[in-house]
Amino acid sequence: MGLSLGIDFGTSGARAIAIDSSKNIVAEVHYPFTNANFQDWQKALFYLLDNLGDSVRSELKSIAINGTSSTVLLCDNWGNPLSEAILYNDGRGIAFLEAIKAIALPHHPVISATSSLAKLLWWSEQEIFSQARYFLSQADWLAFLLHGKLGISDYHNALKLGYDLENLCYPDWLENLPMFNLLPQIFAPGTAIDTIKPDLVTRFAIPKDCLIYTGTTDSIAAFLASGANSLGDGVTSLGSTLVLKLLSSQKVDDSNYGIYSHRLGNLWLTGGASNTGGAVLKKFFSDQELRNYSLAIDGQKESNLDYYPLLKAGERFPINDPFLPVKLTPRPDNPREFLHGLLESIARIEALGYQRLQELGANKLERVYSAGGGAKNSTWRIIRQRHLGVPVLLSQQEQAAYGTALLAQQSVTLLKYSHK
Predict the structure, then answer these.
(1) How far apart are CA 174 and CA 170, in angstroms?
(2) Partner of 188 at 20 to 30 A CA spacing, among 33, 161, 336, 412?
(3) Tens digit of pLDDT for each residue in 217-255?
(4) How far from the centroid of its chain's Cα atoms is residue 334's Cα?
(5) Residue 162: left (phi > 0), alpha (psi -120 to 50), or beta?
(6) Backbone CA torsion sign across 354, 327, 119, 48
(7) 198 preceded by a cis bond (ω within 30 of 0)
(8) pLDDT by residue (tens digit) across 260-291?
């Protein structure tokens, strides 16, 4: 029946997972980044393909890629990046917020210092902009390396560019911008674009009829992998950052809180992405220390330490404030107490995020699936469940690459689901 390959590009590495027709994993390869930019992405992509194994590559029938939301590149006519990519959490577009507010609908996801549109407007004032022919997301560019077609994206990666997910078109206010010609053509996630490039067929011995599909973002891929499938199901990705998704019949957008909704068939994945998360924990603790100190913490007992753990000033969700200060004091001498305060504080932020979504009209939270490295921390799960007040479960599959493999396999039933 052939194999489907999902490739996940996260903040610190890339992973490929191949699944068979029964959705069983038959191969998995990981590649850590030293620097998260396009040179490493291309190296990682080809490393993953090279290390799948001959037997797996020879059976591939479909491939899809996910990337970090609002990580973008400016490319020339041949798809060569004109400068380093601008990463998902880069807030240099803050100078253009007022200009965006003047043209976009109220509370639109583009009204953010880190939105794709804000980054495009920043680039429009740089010298290299005159050479630009394409503005692409990370997933778009990586897929281009496989199928060779430029100017193609999916409506998940295009949300923070300004694409209208209700009417499935670019809005007039975006079409009127002088740089509109750089924007990609938008398809639904999981749309077949073309077969793999002939040179890659030769290089990797992949079947020439292997199809490359449009992808998605890393957090949506994690949702697809989780097993969540009912209204009120939430998925929290506890990776370098904290990302929430709640499956809802109602679309919720509110830029005041950094809340936006992705389309999933006729349903909505409403949520947001915080700058807090595992990257802050790893600044202060090694993996071994995180394990040991967590085991010594009573998750049922609340810490009286109240932090807002960030690597640097600025937050996206559930508070949208590019100047929000880091709060990591007072810091106790006991590292276990400090870790308890950090875990407790991130759990409060997660609970506030889901509370905001429900207050603004999303479905009532019924249960939460956990994905990412932090999902394995059982003490943290107890702390989070105490704050959330609903069951907190492990995702059926924790890797976003698995969700993207389902997308390549055309097995994401929620994309075909019509809520009555």
Answers:
(1) 6
(2) 33
(3) 988 998 999 999 899 999 998 988 999 999 999 999 888
(4) 34
(5) left
(6) negative
(7) no
(8) 899 998 899 999 999 999 999 999 999 999 99
